[in-house]
TrEMBL record, chains A, B, C, D, E, F, G, H, I, J, K, L:
Family membership noted in the UniProt record: Belongs to the Dps family.
GO molecular function: ferric iron binding; oxidoreductase activity, acting on metal ions
Name of the protein in question: DNA starvation/stationary phase protection protein
PROSITE patterns: DPS_1
Amino acid sequence: MAMESVANSVQLPPLDNPNERAAVGEELQLMLQDLIDLSLVGKQLHWSVFGASARGVHLFLDELVEEWSELADVVAERAVTLGFVPDGQSSAVAAGSRVEPVVVRSLADHVVVWELGRRVAAVAERIRARLGSIGGADLVTQDVLIRVVGTLEKQQWLLRVQLGEKA
Amino acid sequence: MAMESVANSVQLPPLDNPNERAAVGEELQLMLQDLIDLSLVGKQLHWSVFGASARGVHLFLDELVEEWSELADVVAERAVTLGFVPDGQSSAVAAGSRVEPVVVRSLADHVVVWELGRRVAAVAERIRARLGSIGGADLVTQDVLIRVVGTLEKQQWLLRVQLGEKA
Amino acid sequence: MAMESVANSVQLPPLDNPNERAAVGEELQLMLQDLIDLSLVGKQLHWSVFGASARGVHLFLDELVEEWSELADVVAERAVTLGFVPDGQSSAVAAGSRVEPVVVRSLADHVVVWELGRRVAAVAERIRARLGSIGGADLVTQDVLIRVVGTLEKQQWLLRVQLGEKA
Amino acid sequence: MAMESVANSVQLPPLDNPNERAAVGEELQLMLQDLIDLSLVGKQLHWSVFGASARGVHLFLDELVEEWSELADVVAERAVTLGFVPDGQSSAVAAGSRVEPVVVRSLADHVVVWELGRRVAAVAERIRARLGSIGGADLVTQDVLIRVVGTLEKQQWLLRVQLGEKA
Amino acid sequence: MAMESVANSVQLPPLDNPNERAAVGEELQLMLQDLIDLSLVGKQLHWSVFGASARGVHLFLDELVEEWSELADVVAERAVTLGFVPDGQSSAVAAGSRVEPVVVRSLADHVVVWELGRRVAAVAERIRARLGSIGGADLVTQDVLIRVVGTLEKQQWLLRVQLGEKA
Amino acid sequence: MAMESVANSVQLPPLDNPNERAAVGEELQLMLQDLIDLSLVGKQLHWSVFGASARGVHLFLDELVEEWSELADVVAERAVTLGFVPDGQSSAVAAGSRVEPVVVRSLADHVVVWELGRRVAAVAERIRARLGSIGGADLVTQDVLIRVVGTLEKQQWLLRVQLGEKA
Amino acid sequence: MAMESVANSVQLPPLDNPNERAAVGEELQLMLQDLIDLSLVGKQLHWSVFGASARGVHLFLDELVEEWSELADVVAERAVTLGFVPDGQSSAVAAGSRVEPVVVRSLADHVVVWELGRRVAAVAERIRARLGSIGGADLVTQDVLIRVVGTLEKQQWLLRVQLGEKA
Amino acid sequence: MAMESVANSVQLPPLDNPNERAAVGEELQLMLQDLIDLSLVGKQLHWSVFGASARGVHLFLDELVEEWSELADVVAERAVTLGFVPDGQSSAVAAGSRVEPVVVRSLADHVVVWELGRRVAAVAERIRARLGSIGGADLVTQDVLIRVVGTLEKQQWLLRVQLGEKA
Amino acid sequence: MAMESVANSVQLPPLDNPNERAAVGEELQLMLQDLIDLSLVGKQLHWSVFGASARGVHLFLDELVEEWSELADVVAERAVTLGFVPDGQSSAVAAGSRVEPVVVRSLADHVVVWELGRRVAAVAERIRARLGSIGGADLVTQDVLIRVVGTLEKQQWLLRVQLGEKA
Amino acid sequence: MAMESVANSVQLPPLDNPNERAAVGEELQLMLQDLIDLSLVGKQLHWSVFGASARGVHLFLDELVEEWSELADVVAERAVTLGFVPDGQSSAVAAGSRVEPVVVRSLADHVVVWELGRRVAAVAERIRARLGSIGGADLVTQDVLIRVVGTLEKQQWLLRVQLGEKA
Amino acid sequence: MAMESVANSVQLPPLDNPNERAAVGEELQLMLQDLIDLSLVGKQLHWSVFGASARGVHLFLDELVEEWSELADVVAERAVTLGFVPDGQSSAVAAGSRVEPVVVRSLADHVVVWELGRRVAAVAERIRARLGSIGGADLVTQDVLIRVVGTLEKQQWLLRVQLGEKA
Amino acid sequence: MAMESVANSVQLPPLDNPNERAAVGEELQLMLQDLIDLSLVGKQLHWSVFGASARGVHLFLDELVEEWSELADVVAERAVTLGFVPDGQSSAVAAGSRVEPVVVRSLADHVVVWELGRRVAAVAERIRARLGSIGGADLVTQDVLIRVVGTLEKQQWLLRVQLGEKA
């Protein structure tokens, strides 16, 4: 949350639009909180899922959680690289994330896929909406976010097709 | 948070003291929330640390976070095995965890070690205090928690010795 | 089935209650036969399963069979370590195991999960019931069995949740 | 499609019935085209499948495609070893393969399994019908084809059992 | 070939220019067909090559085929992610691909490299020509295609230099 | 034990002599039971062996058991592929296997090798005696059994030479 | 040998019976010295063994030495975790270990196994005798020692059976 | 340094602005020389570093050198792909690189980090300044350089934070 | 060279035509000597090759030598399994092998390929000529030899195509 | 300590100066004891180190201990190869080693490095002083010791530079 | 270039002839510069090679460059171990290396091999000429350089034979 | 057997005593033939061994054969590096090797070890006797041979101790 003096000794990357450095940092912080929250919701569903496809979904969720944790790390490290320390702790995530919590009980496999699919789509869409303006400030950060969006949209497809018979 | 009907079709493990099933579940939920919170605080410090030892601490934090995530998974899966679905989402963790948040800014390496050491010791101590009574209800759960405490106390030592010159 | 002279040259482990050495050996033999029988039933179902989830169940069964074979080995080696040679051959398993056989024909995936779940739960419950008294004779054997029970109960959960929609 | 002069410098394998060299080459070419076509149809279904079992089928298809590509390579290399260059390009496959194309749209998981099962069975049956006469000309080529048929028939079983509830 | 209802339950990625969704899908389908065709031509040459450098070219072709298959998968999955099911079967590839077939007979190593180099260059050039307009519709798809073009152009260099003495 | 309707939806492999399908299935079942029994006897000896060569024999037995389990799986899966579900459970193995049990006590290393060698030779000989007639019905099944016999006969040699000084 | 100030900055684990902290540390030190001494004796025998089974014993000794070194490390790190620095240097081991040295010359394989078996049994028995009282002070340390005893007793069995013909 | 005839036989990639082909090649050559020089300076510091953090810095330098060598290779291969052979030999690097040499003697760890941090920042900044204009000529080359800049800026952060206490 | 008493304790495999046991052993011995000789000639050429393709041929020769050594081992072990100890020592190979030696001096790459190709073809042809009669005595040995012939003929193709420009 | 009869059956390596065989053996024994003692001191420091660099030193010590154990094994096996059984047990090491013990308490990281550096330098220097005379008796043993000295002197450098700021 | 005070705290290795310490350091510096320069020339040729063997040479060059980089590191670390910091930066290499640069343009494969072969031979010869005198000062450094010469001379052979047809 | 013109294009390594180049080549050829012969005798014994230790010896022989093949390759490549092509074919080995053949029949394990031990010792002794004079001509070749002798003498020890009870 602070643009600090750690960056004094060696200069920070000179963004195309240095005035937007703090703004980019704040955007990355929001994305980070969404990604951390996705990984916690994913783990929650990993423990809660039941139904004939439960085992497949249980294992798939661990792959997704792994991908979200890695993307979160990439986003946070880009923020720090730009001189902004984002907040990824539980209270900040609970306050700042735009990912809805799920109900705490056993959940049928198709419900799990449905609930998760909507949340992944929403996060992807929010980040996609910011690609253009961030590209104006910093092409390197934009490239990081294109990778994040591409990964989330592919997951969205993989979840979407599992809903076929229920839709 | 609910002792549900998922367990109807195949019976649940017959604890030595079945009346304490819900109580054990609630205890495991608290421990889960502490462990998830440790992993989020650890990641936060991974991004925030600076100082001559920053790189070593940065890498060590990833090992610790990995261990906490694995322990959290083991604890949560034991709870579900006993028929209790714990809540590990961000708002539940923010509300239920007893781990203090850290300040959001760049933090010197020795401060990072000090802050983390205190939190690990506190979590280990809280779980240790429950080993005896949980052993009375279920030896298998007790064995899981002995592993958790042993791991946390070893980390506590590895952190403690890094503070030597500052103490 | 025999407490033999192999142990003459180097003494056997001095149990807390040496009078119970043969009794512990016999208990371990029963558990061994149950575990071997589980692994044969599991393989049988691996070949017999059909239905929309057949492939997932087919692969999951190989993981379970692997775990049961390894647990059987650990239990048998603990018996021999205590000076008791258990019988794990087909006729002894057929006679001594308390695991029900399954019908020999193609079986629907949900039937497979249901039949297996009940058998795993029964074996886990029988071993759990002996944890206390064996702990009185030998803490090391108890520790082996706590691992066996913990593994079986986790499998019981993983099978139980796959029955959700059928229950 | 041509028995060429590449083989002049070092003689070709002396088949039991050298007069059938070209005939064996042509048969291998047909089998090659069927196997390549199976791999393209398999990839098509990998992208098109939807339904509750979509993820399992999606992953299973990649394993099958891998096996068909490897078998196709073995078959083609046996043909070239005998001095015959087979045609495995798209127009030759489109013209020569006896595998039916699938409709180009999203397909439900059970439809995917059904469509694939029929095609695998047909290819296996066609190759099996030629085992005897090819064995008369060349035992080594027969051995290659026995491996191909054995692999396809095992896949046929793995697909067949997934249709249980729909049949 | 169809923009279908699979996408109803969870919304599709909101392209910058949603009106161009079908157009982007059709372009990806053409690129997919070119890449599949390259992989079939590459395999054909793998079996047909002769000459002093035959072994090196034979092995290099397998690396190229592997890369084209992977790129084809990435392109097809991006199309499906956008809601468009492309056709990658043999008759569609034979009809839609713009890659010329090669003659079916043993081919000298330098001819193989020459024929392949021209085809790779042509495919790279066609995709490069579409980078700009696709970037206007969807930055994520553009990023996928930049990777495809970069890979093909590097292959083009690796092939080009092998022609040195013949040019 | 039953030729069932699982095979209705996609046809079974068309054996050279379809009338012998059930007969082949019954033969495979007998071989399966012998192989499973060998693996249980092998594990029994793994736990019972003593003598100066005990460690070498103990480790060698695990390799043999691994090979028998894999061969048993291959044989059973060939039976199911042909439409016949074999019985590999403990009571069926105890009843149907022609492998003699060993005495349940510590056994000297040379006795272990001798007892095992005789049993492996007997199983190999029984299967070898059926190679010809099964080849008449199905070349693919014959090929599976040639691999089984080849493996058992090699083991027979490896065991035989260890008896040298005792013979 | 000293309960020092390293533990000031972050508190030590609160044992069930904190008054026994030093006592537990001293016991762990004795066990550590026995385990280090076993590993040095084992290495000595690794270099000295001769006889028909020399190679097998030579290799087995390296596995045992590896296990003892790892157990020694676990025991020493538990001591330091509790705030006690144990002495594992050569003079302390020579003075404190209760493991008898072996004679320094070539030793026949069966003598090596016999000498080692007695020493392993003695160390296991001494640690087993302390399991109960240590469990009263600290369940986590007890769990470490149960693992040590279980490992040593299994080694004792593996050595014991190699003596069969000599006993 | 020369736009040569190697490219005659198969045409070069058609840049968006073909007139800038030589200009892009020259820019890539400068970047290549900077990256090679960074790797030589990094190795020099790997041998020269001393101080309490010397070992950590020594190892970190090898990771950085590895990354710079890989980036240099990617940049050089992109230049050759475009038809331009860059000069990466010692005299060209000594003449063309804009990276300052370091003094040749033992250097304290914090001095090493400081000297390296400044050089990495300078190289990153120079390449970043060219991203826009190169993107106008060739999107594929721009994508390569975005990866280079992103990697260098992340290293810049990792070095910057190690200077905390000295700044 | 001797049908010995090693086989007394456990009976030998009962060949279809036991009278041919010695004859089969002698044939396997000849094949073994050819394969060992190929591997020595291959190594010789590995050290002697020169020319523009020298490095590729040098590496390819090591792969071929590896394959011949493995085939030799399989052939020899089949002979011993049948009760016949073959002679694979240098004087027996020098006397019995039908592989011509090569001249001892540096040899041009195309000469190396040509010399080797002729020898591989000759060995393959000799073994192929015996497939039928050996199959009459023992299907398992025939299966081993089909694998040998298949491997040699594939190598023959890989060598043959490298001669293209010289033929 | 004894030049024994193990060497009777197959003669010992004929040293250049066979009269010095026992002398070489005794020298190797002293070096062995120094190396074992270094490994015990290294492990002791692994458990005792504290300070800001504690973790780096703790991990580095395990690498050094691993290297010393491997060098000790090489030295001891060379002695036995020459027919001399050296004594590497705790009392012999305590008596014969010239490595000073360290004080048993927590030790600051820079003290650990300093204490270790001096001991490594002393051992290296003692062995270096014997290189010439041992080379006169046996070039193979000299080669082993050159490797030992080279490894120790490199460690000496790696330790020396970590002392920079304290020196 | 400086014999510095880093060596004060722990003494340097006592060379046989300590007066030659600086001289040995200077010699190692020259060898280091030659080896670094070889690796830069090798990389240059890796990018520049064309011709029918271009791919093989391109890949071989990466293996050579890897070996030269590793040898350079070994040589530099030996210098620092002896207390001399060598200069391996671009300007020092450009000034001190005796390796001739190559012309900067596409180079035919046989020219590349020829140019490289001469340079490798020259470096090997220069180092070989110093083996004797360095052995007089320090056997450990001599051993390092014997390894360097052995590696370079083997490369010289591998390059030499590729020139056969052109010579 | 010939000092040829392959070495014209790039000069050969300048030995200390160039007049001895051919002599060194001839010596290396003799050593090569001994090592190849050892590997053939070792393989022969691998197939012939029987007795209680047969399996251990059978496996150990494969390790030895692997080591001899690798040493033979190193020796031959050193000869070629010096410009001398040695003869390693079966007739040259049969004629030139000084290794005695073994009798062709089943051989008891202790006989195998005895026969092999004598042959290894003889080869080691012959090479050791040449170390000095070869060192006078070429230190690099001497270093290769010191490695060969060291390896053979270690094997000699490992074989010698297995004879203990028989000696």
